[in-house]
Amino acid sequence: IDKHPGVTQFDEWLPAGFEGGISLNVGTVVYGTNGELAVRLTERNADAAFELVFDSPIAVRMAGEGSLISYWKTGFSARKHSIFSARASQFLDWIESSSAGIHSAGRVTHYAVFSDDLCIEVLSYEPPSFRIL
Predict the structure, then answer these.
(1) 10 Å Cβ neighbour count for 70?
(2) Backbone angles phi and psi of 70, in degrees to 5
(3) Looking at the predicted structure, is the pLDDT value of residue 5 above 60?
(4) For a surface tag, which of 22, 55, 83, 102 has the fewest beta carbons within 10 Å of its beta carbon?
(5) What is the model's pLDDT at position 75?
(6) From the CB of residue 87, how many other CB atoms can be counted at a distance below 10 Å?
(7) How far apart are CA 80 and CA 131, in angstroms?
């Protein structure tokens, strides 16, 4: 049963080859001229660096974590994991409505990266690729 109807609900998302929670900080975010969105991530308390790459995202939004109080009020926490996909999404509802149904739920996925300061949400037809740098 949905405890919070109309509220975005996230599930942990793991790239292929990863197991368990990964807690990351957002570094640089680059939107290339070819339409590619690359998000550089660093592991908290470690030197490891990664890049999450979306080939052609439909929509992207970035906000400071303090601007997402509606997520935190539902009890959602990103303390032990940083990358998520949404099974219910107000952002996806918005793009579906704004595009007159061209970008519809079921075909588009809402991904999110939450860090201590910056949160990035992406709507994409394809899952991102994940590269170790």
Answers:
(1) 12
(2) -60, -30
(3) no
(4) 102
(5) 61
(6) 14
(7) 20
- Look up residue 67 and give its amino acid: S
- For 18, the token pair is 């990863």
Tokens encoding 86: 């949404």
Residue type, 65: E
Q: Are 25 and 31 in contact (CB under 8 A)?
A: no
Residue-wise pLDDT tens digits, 58-111: 999 988 766 666 665 666 666 677 888 987 788 888 888 999 888 877 789 999
Asked if residues 29 and 38 have their Cβ atoms less than 8 Å apart, the reply is yes
Q: What is the tens place of the pLDDT at every residue in 20-37? A: 677 788 888 999 999 999
The Cα–Cα gap between 120 and 6 comes to 20
Tokens of 120: 């990035």
Give the separation between CA 25 and CA 98, rounded to whole angstroms.
Answer: 31
Separation between Cα atoms, residue 108 and residue 53, nearest integer Å: 16
